[in-house]
Amino acid sequence: MALVWLDLAGVFFFAVSGSLLAARKQFDIVGSVLLASLVALGGGVIRDIIINAGPPAAFANPVYVLPPLLAAALVYFLFANVQRFTSLLTLFDAGGLALFCITGTVKALSAELNPFAAVLLGVTTAVGGGLLRDITANEVPGLFNARDLYAIPAFLGAGLTAVLWVSGTFSAWTAVGVAVLVFVFRVTAWRRGWHAPLAVRGWHRFGLDSTGKSRGLD
Amino acid sequence: MALVWLDLAGVFFFAVSGSLLAARKQFDIVGSVLLASLVALGGGVIRDIIINAGPPAAFANPVYVLPPLLAAALVYFLFANVQRFTSLLTLFDAGGLALFCITGTVKALSAELNPFAAVLLGVTTAVGGGLLRDITANEVPGLFNARDLYAIPAFLGAGLTAVLWVSGTFSAWTAVGVAVLVFVFRVTAWRRGWHAPLAVRGWHRFGLDSTGKSRGLD
Amino acid sequence: MALVWLDLAGVFFFAVSGSLLAARKQFDIVGSVLLASLVALGGGVIRDIIINAGPPAAFANPVYVLPPLLAAALVYFLFANVQRFTSLLTLFDAGGLALFCITGTVKALSAELNPFAAVLLGVTTAVGGGLLRDITANEVPGLFNARDLYAIPAFLGAGLTAVLWVSGTFSAWTAVGVAVLVFVFRVTAWRRGWHAPLAVRGWHRFGLDSTGKSRGLD
């Protein structure tokens, strides 16, 4: 079914983002495969555990091991000549995000969760792998410390998927349409630097409050 | 039932602690909502996955999304004038700890786990959210690196809850009594600096052993 | 049954590694017990959640609480005189790795997962606790950033266990044989500095590529 192919494509995109980060961190080839696996399969394993319908697909179905191996091999042979590392990682990550917010939502709807829960689970699937990647690489997760919109595109994609599903118009073609929309939204937000306001009204970055004084956190 | 209200109150307290940390870390408002959700709902999701009784309440029941949204809004509008940041975070965190060690234990007992396992699961629920908060914020978790007692009050609350339940005297009133006791214990430990001995006999902080020499770790 | 004893021995070894790290990080005795519990029981809890066969053994069976308490007590009373900290941690960690890759694989096979999934789950069990240990101690996990082979011995042990099981020759004696083999392989790799190539062909550590120029990551 088309959904499996979309899921495998998402797994591959996230796996490449994991292997790219492993390369930048100077991990070895084994660490590259393992980090690719964690990023690519982590979000889906969390999803399947929460849906609670038998062992996660990543363990039960051997085909899910191939994308991380392929990603690590690609990075091993091709990355030495790559200059624009951060751009490449962001693009592959955006591809995984765009596909997983759809497949995660559909898997939850197929397991008969209500549409509201399905959207939350779709977003969790989409952002889970990247969160694990950043935590294990010992960085503050981009999910929380976003310089540009990251979770919002995932919410948009999961919400559209739920609407299409409930209205009976979900198909391989509308799924691809949603994926393209989420991908373009995420990449545009990144290139244009679209961002949400800070967590406190009147604050701006650089450690000063709106009156220009240091914030004096105790 | 009263237990749901205690649980929602605990969710709200932990959510505020998450949004406060997001503010201090200069995350944006989306990151504030997401970190509040992770801290507030993470411990309960781990508990429900371990109990293994269908999808976690945080996904199945839409009402659990409200406390993180409310917490992020409160911090957004009110925090700019707050001076005593660390104190506030510690107080809200203590409130969540006091309520979750009770509701986590009761949920486990209701799922027919034995009292011993229920106490362990209650403590896991209570400390899980804060552990996730510290890990994602890229700090050594306060749970392990405690300058004052943190897990001990949770064990006390979970243990008392199990005793009340087994003896048939658990009610909304005794639950509130246990919560107050745990909260006062935790806050007093924090203000007075009560702490446990270090992990090795004869060692003290500041990198010197009991003979005054540097420890020479290889 | 012998398998429970092997599992408990693995739990104890990982618990000691957790308490040793707690000592080096100057955590207190409560943090030592909790970190020992997380490292020793975390991998098994993840395994049992993925197998999805009721509450994890670590919660259901009270005996699993004893090894972390014992480990924290041992480190508390004996560690002040220990000089070779890193060596000791590596040895205990290798012992846990050697036993968990076997018991994890066997538990998965007993739950009727296919041998392929069982090997993946055995490796996950074996490396999961150490991964949690490094993440909570706020270090880049040794699993990914290995200066010597770590995951490969676990794969070897899990694979041999699956072969023995499928061929009907798995027994307490062959299990001990596999454990000794994995332990010797891991310790030898550590002492000799055996390592895999980096994640990108032609790169070496120290931030220079094969042409001697700085890598110019953007």
Description:
The structure is a homotrimer of 218-residue chains. Chain A has 218 residues and is mainly α. Chain A has one domain. In chain A, 68% of the residues lie in helices and 0% in strands. Chain A has helices at residues 2-24, 29-51, 57-60, 66-78, 85-110, 115-136, 151-166, 172-192. The longest helix of chain A is centred in the middle third of the chain and has 26 residues, at 85-110. Chain A starts with a helix and ends in a 26-residue tail after the last helix. The A-C interface holds A 19, 22-32, 34-35, 45, 49, 52, 54-56, 59-60, 62, 65, 72, 75-77, 79-80, 83-87, 135-138 and C 49-52, 113-114, 116-117, 120-121, 131, 135, 138-141, 143-146, 149-152, 195-203, 205, 207, 209-210, 216-218.
Walk me through the topology.
The structure is a homotrimer of 218-residue chains.
Chain A: H1 2-24, H2 29-51, H3 57-60, H4 66-78, H5 85-110, H6 115-136, H7 151-166, H8 172-192
Helix pairs in contact in A: 1-2, 1-4, 1-5, 2-4, 2-5, 2-6, 5-6, 5-7, 5-8, 6-7, 7-8
